[in-house]
Amino acid sequence: MGANIFLMLAATLVLVSAAAGDGAETEVFQVAGKVLCQDCGEGWNEWVNGANPIKGSKVSITCMDDRNRVVQYASDLTDDAGNFEVTCNQYVNKKEIKPQNCFFRLVSSPDPLCNIATNFAGGKSGVKLHRRPAMVYRNIVKYDLGPFYYTTPMCDEPDTSITDEDDSDDGRQSNY
């Protein structure tokens, strides 16, 4: 009988240690938000409040380690309501991924009329997960970002940051 108790205790210890090891490996963090189309051709009220969701828009997250090497990449497509939710592992190769070292950005829009990424909320240039999570529950940490916007080509502002030193050569000048 003493041997049976010993075997049960040993089995319990093995299960507990295995669960503890797996628990650290299965922790995740999620990044959620929304992607919308904002048309500047509408009136002010419609432009501010009337953005439409974009189904099938691709978003991505890239996570770096402490030496600025990419250790994780994930992406997601938006649903009918323009919502996305990207799930990342908290641990890669038994090393913790810090959400603050992750970079989120817009990738593409399938809408042929609304496919110019804007920098509202940092979607075009990218945004780091430096703020506090919106939810922490058991082994899941969730960050809410955005909303992020695409716009129409008509609304896209030309890049005027590049200036020509020599204005005499019309062949090299931009027409904007």
TrEMBL record:
Is Signal tagged as a keyword? yes
Keyword Signal appears in the UniProt entry: yes
What keywords is this UniProt entry annotated with?
Signal
Q: What cellular-component terms does GO give this entry?
A: cell periphery
Q: What is this protein's name? A: Pistil-specific extensin-like protein
- In the UniProt record, the signal sequence range is 1-18
